[in-house]
From TrEMBL:
<dbReference type="GO" id="GO:0009725">
    <property type="term" value="P:response to hormone"/>
</dbReference>
<keyword id="KW-0521">NADP</keyword>
<dbReference type="Pfam" id="PF00667">
    <property type="entry name" value="FAD_binding_1"/>
</dbReference>
<dbReference type="InterPro" id="IPR008254">
    <property type="entry name" value="Flavodoxin/NO_synth"/>
</dbReference>
<dbReference type="InterPro" id="IPR001709">
    <property type="entry name" value="Flavoprot_Pyr_Nucl_cyt_Rdtase"/>
</dbReference>
<protein>
    <recommendedName>
        <fullName>NADPH--hemoprotein reductase</fullName>
        <ecNumber>1.6.2.4</ecNumber>
    </recommendedName>
</protein>
<keyword id="KW-0812">Transmembrane</keyword>
<keyword id="KW-0285">Flavoprotein</keyword>
<dbReference type="InterPro" id="IPR001094">
    <property type="entry name" value="Flavdoxin-like"/>
</dbReference>
<keyword id="KW-1133">Transmembrane helix</keyword>
<feature type="domain" description="FAD-binding FR-type">
    <location>
        <begin position="282"/>
        <end position="523"/>
    </location>
</feature>
<dbReference type="GO" id="GO:0010181">
    <property type="term" value="F:FMN binding"/>
</dbReference>
<dbReference type="InterPro" id="IPR023173">
    <property type="entry name" value="NADPH_Cyt_P450_Rdtase_alpha"/>
</dbReference>
<feature type="transmembrane region" description="Helical">
    <location>
        <begin position="25"/>
        <end position="46"/>
    </location>
</feature>
<dbReference type="InterPro" id="IPR029039">
    <property type="entry name" value="Flavoprotein-like_sf"/>
</dbReference>
<dbReference type="Pfam" id="PF00258">
    <property type="entry name" value="Flavodoxin_1"/>
</dbReference>
<dbReference type="GO" id="GO:0005829">
    <property type="term" value="C:cytosol"/>
</dbReference>
Length: 682
């Protein structure tokens, strides 16, 4: 008999020896089993009572607590609120509007609260009728190509799948959108329509704000008609004029541990000193700038190429994704605000929410210094909205300046016109307003409460992770212009990035960033032809596309389709990059690339991408109709994207023998199938 031992060795035994060994083994097995059974019985007898005595109640309570916390109904009942204003916000504007509406409610004997839909269970909407004179308002921004904002994604998914009975719900919707985009206010329209389908009662018409026009005026116009409708529905009256209501109280820290003070972090305290993945909007990665070079020679505009090191961050990206960076305000602007208000900016303070039940304890990370707040957390460069002017008016000691501020904050036609001309068109930021109104000297803590948050800036990534897995490239042009008042305004992020020059220790070249995924993707099959249209800085994602296709060809990953790039115009970015990187594009010709550009050398001319499309219209139609080409458009949404789309309508109508409506439908179907993709901004 041959038996394999533990070490895999062969042990040869005679039959008698084998029988003896078996008897021994059975004996040992019996002893082992008896011991095991005895042990288990003893353990059960002595310890079972103790286990039974452990109550399950605490465990049940800990599970139930989050459910109660996520119920906005319970919170409204507990705090005596009857109006809830949900916001779907990507840049903070919808959240700001929601806060303004919730504060309005007190004028009508009602109590409101602004709420982030991401923090609550929206299926509770069916229970809102349990509260007397209850109303749900939705301030919903549309993001990207008709998509919900990140914080409204779960709410959107629930609406799509819900089969709830919302017959007891009263609601109103204000949408925030931009008419230059294909799907104008898609989210606001969908929420308004879907709530009605589920049986909810609309008490005021859908508001459609247009950021391409005057979003603030659109909101004020809707708001001034919305509240009378609420009053009529509930049979209430306004209790008086608007009044200034502080949402936060100031606490000055004279003796505070410096390790407990925020110095610019977006979320977790000391997160910049102790970096932990995953990295996102609330936990950005500090990437070092390893290269920052100017692309153009001379000229007024500064065209730059930056490379961010993401080694050891576990950040992954794909061609077409966006990189978000958190900029800092110019220190000279911050210092001037401090000087005008006569304040020591290094004072450590906290702004604490007076509503102890609110999920939002502070308007920005606290405790911190005024300098940090004005540098990293607050928007001090954009023209302030009318509600800020109204709140500030009380601090103007000159009656003329006070009346001017109140007039601009009013809903009167004259006031709206004055706000448009004196603030918006003149591009007066808060510093300019303080400079031009010498008697206006508000407390700095109230100013910090009123100013909106400084938002991350998004850039199309100008590299391929296949070629550059450890770096993310950005191509951008610095923004700088003179206002009607003669002031020089500078873009916050581009000028901040411009000064991020690599140095020996790297401390001055760190950029807080994270990657935002995009649907702007190369076709799954490398053999599929692509047509890329990107004038100016719109060329950025296509640098990554070309790099990736050249890499696929180099790696021998099968056939790689034709790669056509249209970049044109007096928009210098595309021209300069094309002229200086002609060799790189020539290499990409190995993948069948074709460059549509009027530039053989750097010249000033006005040739637009739609002209190039028309010039090559027959080839374009063949690629689209016969080659199943994918079309990509990146750049200005207001004019370029619309003109390019109209040009495609013309090409399809001409070569496809279609009427104009049929051609429009053909292009729309390309969009639906993911063959016509947009990455545009206004």
């Amino acid at each position: 008999l041959t038996v394999m031992g533990d070490a895999g060795m062969e042990l040869n035994m005679s039959p008698p020896d084998s029988a003896a060994q078996q008897d021994s083994l059975f004996s040992m097995t019996d002893v082992f089993l008896i011991s095991l059974i005895t042990g288990l019985f003893t353990y059960w007898f002595f310890f079972r009572k103790k286990k039974e005595e452990v109550p399950d109640i605490p465990k049940m309570q800990s599970i139930a607590t989050p459910v109660r916390d996520s119920s906005f109904i319970e919170k409204m009942k507990k705090t005596g609120r009857n109006i809830v204003v949900f916001y779907g916000s990507q840049t903070g504007t919808a959240e700001e509007f929601a806060n303004r509406l919730s504060k309005d409610a007190h004028r009508y004997g009602l109590r409101g609260m602004a709420a982030d839909p991401e923090e609550y269970d929206l299926s509770d909407l069916s229970r809102l009728s349990e509260i007397d004179k209850s109303l749900a308002v939705f301030c919903m921004a549309t993001y990207g190509e008709g998509d919900p904002t990140d914080n409204a994604q779960d709410f959107y998914d629930w609406l799509q799948e819900a089969d709830a009975d919302l017959s007891g719900l009263r609601f109103a919707v204000f949408g925030l959108g931009n008419k230059t985009y294909e799907h104008f206010n898609a989210m606001g329209k969908y929420v308004d329509k879907r709530l009605e389908e589920l049986g909810a009662q609309r008490i005021f018409e859908l508001g459609l704000g247009d950021d391409d026009g005057n979003l603030e005026e659109d909101f004020i116009t809707w708001r001034e008609q919305f509240w009378p409708a609420v009053c009529e529905h509930f049979g209430v009256e306004a209790t008086g004029e608007e009044s200034s209501i502080r949402q936060y109280e100031l606490v000055v820290h004279t003796d505070v541990n410096v390790n407990k003070v925020y110095t610019g972090e977006m979320g977790r305290l000391k997160s910049y000193e102790n970096q932990k993945p995953p990295f996102d909007a609330k936990n950005p990665f500090l990437a070092q700038v390893t290269e920052n070079r100017k692309l153009n020679e001379g000229g007024e505009r500064h065209l730059m190429h930056l490379e961010l090191d993401i080694s050891n961050s576990k950040i992954r990206y794909e061609s077409g994704d966006h990189v978000a960076v958190y900029p800092a305000n110019d220190s000279s602007l911050v210092n001037q605000i401090g000087e005008i208000l006569g304040m020591d900016l290094d004072t450590i303070m906290s702004l604490n929410n007076l509503d102890e039940e609110s999920n939002k304890k502070h308007p920005f990370p606290c405790p911190t210094s005024y300098r940090t707040a004005l540098t990293y957390y607050l928007d001090i460069t954009n023209p302030p909205r009318t509600n800020v002017l109204y709140e500030l008016a009380q601090y103007a000691t000159d009656t003329g300046e006070q009346e001017r501020l109140r007039k601009m904050a009013s809903s009167a036609a004259e006031g709206k016109a004055l706000y448009l001309s004196w603030v918006v068109e003149a591009r007066r930021n808060i510093l300019a307003i303080l400079q031009d109104m010498p008697s206006l000297r508000p407390p700095i803590d109230h100013l910090c409460e009123l100013l909106p948050r400084l938002q991350a800036r998004y850039y199309s990534i100008a590299s391929s992770s296949k070629v550059h897995p450890n770096t993310i490239h950005i191509c951008a042009v610095t923004v700088e212009y003179e206002t009607k008042t003669g002031r020089l305004n500078k873009g916050v992020a581009t000028n901040w990035l411009k000064n991020k020059v690599p140095d020996e220790n790297g401390s001055n070249s760190l950029v807080p960033m994270y990657v935002r995924k995009s649907q702007f993707r190369l076709p799954f099959k490398p053999s599929t032809p692509v047509i890329m249209i990107g004038p100016g800085t719109g060329i950025a994602p296509f640098i990554g596309f070309i790099q990736e296709r050249a890499w696929l060809k180099q790696q021998g990953r099968g056939e790689v389709g034709r790669t056509g790039l249209g970049a044109a115009g007096g928009q210098l970015m595309g021209a300069v990059w094309l002229c200086r990187q002609r060799a790189s594009l020539a290499m990409a010709c190995g993948v069948g690339a074709r460059l549509l550009s009027p530039h053989s050398h750097l010249v000033s001319c006005q040739v637009y991408v739609q002209h190039l499309l028309k010039k090559n219209k027959e080839n374009v139609w063949k690629l689209v109709n016969e080659g199943n080409a994918h079309i990509y458009v990146c750049g200005d949404a207001r004019n370029m994207a619309r003109d390019v789309q109209n040009t495609f309508y013309e090409i399809v109508a001409e070569f496809g023998n279609m009427s104009q409506p049929q051609a429009v439908d053909y292009v729309k179907k390309l969009m639906t199938k993911g063959r016509y993709s947009l990455d545009v901004w206004s």
